Protein backbone atom coordinates (compact mmCIF):
# COMPACT_ATOMS: atom_id res chain seq x y z
CA UNK A 1 0.00 0.00 0.00
CA UNK A 2 1.12 3.60 -0.64
CA UNK A 3 1.43 5.92 2.36
CA UNK A 4 -1.12 8.81 2.26
CA UNK A 5 1.62 11.14 3.52
CA UNK A 6 3.34 11.01 0.14
CA UNK A 7 2.11 13.79 -2.10
CA UNK A 8 0.01 12.86 -5.10
CA UNK A 9 2.40 14.87 -7.29
CA UNK A 10 5.36 12.63 -6.37
CA UNK A 11 3.26 9.48 -6.82
CA UNK A 12 1.99 10.62 -10.18
CA UNK A 13 5.52 11.44 -11.33
CA UNK A 14 6.71 8.00 -10.19
CA UNK A 15 3.86 6.24 -11.97
CA UNK A 16 4.44 8.18 -15.17
CA UNK A 17 8.10 7.15 -14.99
CA UNK A 18 7.02 3.50 -14.67
CA UNK A 19 4.66 3.97 -17.57
CA UNK A 20 7.43 5.39 -19.69
CA UNK A 21 9.65 2.40 -18.90
CA UNK A 22 6.92 -0.07 -19.81
CA UNK A 23 5.97 1.72 -23.02
CA UNK A 24 9.62 1.73 -24.13
CA UNK A 25 9.49 -2.05 -24.65
CA UNK A 26 8.64 -3.60 -27.96
CA UNK A 27 5.79 -5.53 -26.32
CA UNK A 28 2.32 -3.94 -26.19
CA UNK A 29 1.78 -2.01 -22.92
CA UNK A 30 -0.01 -3.84 -20.13
CA UNK A 31 -2.09 -2.55 -17.24
CA UNK A 32 -3.39 1.00 -16.97
CA UNK A 33 -2.89 3.39 -19.90
CA UNK A 34 -1.11 6.73 -19.64
CA UNK A 35 -3.43 9.48 -18.44
CA UNK A 36 -5.24 7.43 -15.79
CA UNK A 37 -6.80 9.11 -12.78
CA UNK A 38 -4.77 8.50 -9.62
CA UNK A 39 -6.53 8.53 -6.25
CA UNK A 40 -4.06 8.83 -3.34
CA UNK A 41 -6.80 7.66 -0.94
CA UNK A 42 -7.65 4.54 -2.95
CA UNK A 43 -7.61 1.12 -1.27
CA UNK A 44 -7.13 -2.27 -2.86
CA UNK A 45 -8.36 -5.45 -1.20
CA UNK A 46 -6.59 -7.79 -1.67
CA UNK A 47 -3.55 -5.47 -1.82
CA UNK A 48 -1.37 -5.03 -4.89
CA UNK A 49 1.59 -7.41 -4.97
CA UNK A 50 5.18 -7.15 -6.27
CA UNK A 51 5.47 -3.37 -5.78
CA UNK A 52 2.20 -2.67 -7.62
CA UNK A 53 0.49 0.65 -6.78
CA UNK A 54 -3.18 1.03 -5.87
CA UNK A 55 -4.34 3.89 -8.13
CA UNK A 56 -8.11 3.54 -7.66
CA UNK A 57 -10.24 1.41 -5.40
CA UNK A 58 -9.39 -2.23 -6.19
CA UNK A 59 -7.35 -1.20 -9.24
CA UNK A 60 -3.62 -1.91 -9.26
CA UNK A 61 -0.93 -0.42 -11.47
CA UNK A 62 1.67 -3.18 -11.87
CA UNK A 63 5.41 -2.72 -11.93
CA UNK A 64 7.33 -3.96 -14.93
CA UNK A 65 7.38 -7.74 -15.20
CA UNK A 66 4.06 -8.40 -13.43
CA UNK A 67 0.39 -8.52 -14.40
CA UNK A 68 -3.01 -9.61 -13.09
CA UNK A 69 -5.68 -7.91 -10.99
CA UNK A 70 -3.33 -7.70 -8.01
CA UNK A 71 -0.07 -7.94 -10.02
CA UNK A 72 0.22 -11.53 -8.82
CA UNK A 73 1.52 -13.05 -12.08
CA UNK A 74 5.09 -12.71 -13.32
CA UNK A 75 5.84 -12.12 -17.00
CA UNK A 76 8.73 -13.64 -18.95
CA UNK A 77 9.86 -12.13 -22.27
CA UNK A 78 10.15 -14.03 -24.45
CA UNK A 79 7.47 -16.32 -23.04
CA UNK A 80 8.47 -19.61 -21.41
CA UNK A 81 8.37 -22.31 -24.06
CA UNK A 82 7.49 -26.02 -24.02
CA UNK A 83 5.17 -25.76 -21.02
CA UNK A 84 7.57 -23.79 -18.80
CA UNK A 85 6.22 -21.69 -15.91
CA UNK A 86 7.27 -18.08 -15.30
CA UNK A 87 8.43 -17.87 -11.66
CA UNK A 88 9.58 -14.24 -11.73
CA UNK A 89 10.39 -11.78 -14.52
CA UNK A 90 12.86 -13.45 -16.85
CA UNK A 91 13.01 -16.73 -14.87
CA UNK A 92 11.24 -19.85 -16.12
CA UNK A 93 10.75 -23.21 -14.41
CA UNK A 94 11.16 -25.83 -17.13
CA UNK A 95 9.45 -29.24 -17.36
CA UNK A 96 11.59 -32.39 -17.57
CA UNK A 97 13.41 -32.64 -20.88
CA UNK A 98 13.80 -28.90 -21.42
CA UNK A 99 16.27 -26.27 -20.25
CA UNK A 100 17.72 -22.88 -21.00
CA UNK A 101 16.54 -19.50 -19.72
CA UNK A 102 13.21 -19.79 -21.53
CA UNK A 103 12.92 -23.61 -21.68
CA UNK A 104 13.81 -23.44 -25.36
CA UNK A 105 16.55 -26.08 -25.25
CA UNK A 106 15.80 -29.79 -25.40
CA UNK A 107 17.78 -31.77 -22.81
CA UNK A 108 17.96 -35.54 -22.44
CA UNK A 109 18.67 -36.79 -18.93
CA UNK A 110 22.19 -38.22 -18.94
CA UNK A 111 22.81 -37.01 -22.49
CA UNK A 112 22.91 -39.02 -25.71
CA UNK A 113 25.88 -41.34 -26.29
CA UNK A 114 27.68 -42.52 -29.38
CA UNK A 115 26.60 -39.68 -31.66
CA UNK A 116 22.93 -39.64 -30.65
CA UNK A 117 20.97 -36.39 -30.99
CA UNK A 118 18.55 -35.08 -28.35
CA UNK A 119 15.33 -33.75 -29.90
CA UNK A 120 11.71 -33.24 -28.83
CA UNK A 121 9.28 -35.85 -30.17
CA UNK A 122 5.62 -35.03 -29.43
CA UNK A 123 6.76 -32.77 -26.60
CA UNK A 124 9.03 -35.43 -25.04
CA UNK A 125 12.83 -35.21 -25.14
CA UNK A 126 14.48 -38.36 -26.49
CA UNK A 127 17.68 -39.49 -28.13
CA UNK A 128 17.67 -40.22 -31.85
CA UNK A 129 20.41 -42.78 -32.40
CA UNK A 130 22.63 -43.50 -35.41
CA UNK A 131 21.85 -46.71 -37.25
CA UNK A 132 24.42 -48.81 -35.36
CA UNK A 133 23.21 -47.89 -31.85
CA UNK A 134 19.98 -48.26 -29.87
CA UNK A 135 18.62 -47.69 -26.34
CA UNK A 136 17.31 -44.67 -24.44
CA UNK A 137 20.79 -43.08 -24.49
CA UNK A 138 22.07 -44.84 -27.64
CA UNK A 139 24.17 -46.99 -25.32
CA UNK A 140 23.37 -50.37 -26.90
CA UNK A 141 25.44 -51.47 -29.90
CA UNK A 142 23.71 -53.28 -32.76
CA UNK A 143 25.21 -56.42 -34.30
CA UNK A 144 23.21 -57.15 -37.47
CA UNK A 145 24.58 -60.70 -37.62
CA UNK A 146 23.50 -61.40 -34.04
CA UNK A 147 25.64 -62.85 -31.25
CA UNK A 148 25.00 -66.55 -30.70
CA UNK A 149 25.85 -68.98 -27.91
CA UNK A 150 25.83 -66.36 -25.14
CA UNK A 151 27.84 -63.73 -27.00
CA UNK A 152 27.31 -60.02 -26.25
CA UNK A 153 27.32 -57.19 -28.77
CA UNK A 154 29.91 -54.72 -27.44
CA UNK A 155 30.35 -52.47 -30.50
CA UNK A 156 28.60 -52.18 -33.86
CA UNK A 157 29.06 -55.53 -35.58
CA UNK A 158 31.44 -56.87 -32.89
CA UNK A 159 30.50 -59.67 -30.50
CA UNK A 160 32.29 -60.58 -27.29
CA UNK A 161 32.19 -64.38 -27.13
CA UNK A 162 32.25 -66.68 -24.08
CA UNK A 163 35.02 -69.23 -23.66
CA UNK A 164 34.78 -71.99 -26.20
CA UNK A 165 33.34 -69.91 -29.04
CA UNK A 166 34.85 -67.73 -31.77
CA UNK A 167 33.75 -65.92 -34.92
CA UNK A 168 31.91 -62.74 -35.78
CA UNK A 169 28.66 -64.13 -34.38
CA UNK A 170 30.26 -66.48 -31.77
CA UNK A 171 29.19 -69.34 -34.03
CA UNK A 172 32.47 -71.29 -34.24
CA UNK A 173 33.13 -73.84 -31.48
CA UNK A 174 36.65 -74.31 -30.15
CA UNK A 175 38.20 -77.69 -29.49
CA UNK A 176 41.68 -77.25 -27.98
CA UNK A 177 42.67 -80.65 -29.39
CA UNK A 178 41.56 -80.89 -33.00
CA UNK A 179 39.04 -83.41 -34.20
CA UNK A 180 40.76 -86.11 -36.27
CA UNK A 181 39.82 -88.16 -39.30
CA UNK A 182 37.39 -85.65 -40.74
CA UNK A 183 35.55 -85.01 -37.47
CA UNK A 184 34.01 -81.58 -36.81
CA UNK A 185 34.07 -79.49 -33.62
CA UNK A 186 30.37 -78.78 -32.96
CA UNK A 187 30.58 -77.33 -29.43
CA UNK A 188 33.42 -76.55 -27.02
CA UNK A 189 35.62 -79.62 -26.71
CA UNK A 190 33.08 -81.86 -28.48
CA UNK A 191 33.66 -83.51 -31.84
CA UNK A 192 31.16 -85.03 -34.27
CA UNK A 193 32.86 -87.95 -35.96
CA UNK A 194 32.50 -89.42 -39.43
CA UNK A 195 31.99 -93.18 -39.72
CA UNK A 196 33.71 -95.44 -38.98
CA UNK A 197 35.51 -93.23 -36.41
CA UNK A 198 34.54 -92.50 -32.82
CA UNK A 199 36.08 -91.32 -29.57
CA UNK A 200 36.53 -87.89 -27.98
CA UNK A 201 38.72 -86.76 -30.91
CA UNK A 202 37.46 -89.23 -33.51
CA UNK A 203 40.73 -91.08 -33.08
CA UNK A 204 39.21 -94.58 -32.80
CA UNK A 205 38.27 -96.65 -35.79
CA UNK A 206 35.53 -99.22 -35.43
CA UNK A 207 36.40 -102.65 -36.72
CA UNK A 208 33.88 -104.02 -39.20
CA UNK A 209 33.10 -107.76 -39.02
From TrEMBL:
GO cellular component, one term: extracellular region
GO molecular function: activin receptor binding; nodal binding
Protein name per the record: von Willebrand factor D and EGF domain-containing protein
Keyword Repeat carried by entry: no
The keyword Disulfide bond belongs to this UniProt entry's keyword annotation: yes
Lineage of the organism: Eukaryota, Metazoa, Chordata, Craniata, Vertebrata
PANTHER family cross-referenced by the UniProt entry: EGF-LIKE-DOMAIN, MULTIPLE 7, 8, SCHWANN CELL-SPECIFIC EGF-LIKE REPEAT AUTOCRINE FACTOR
Provenance organism: Scomber scombrus
Transmembrane segments: none
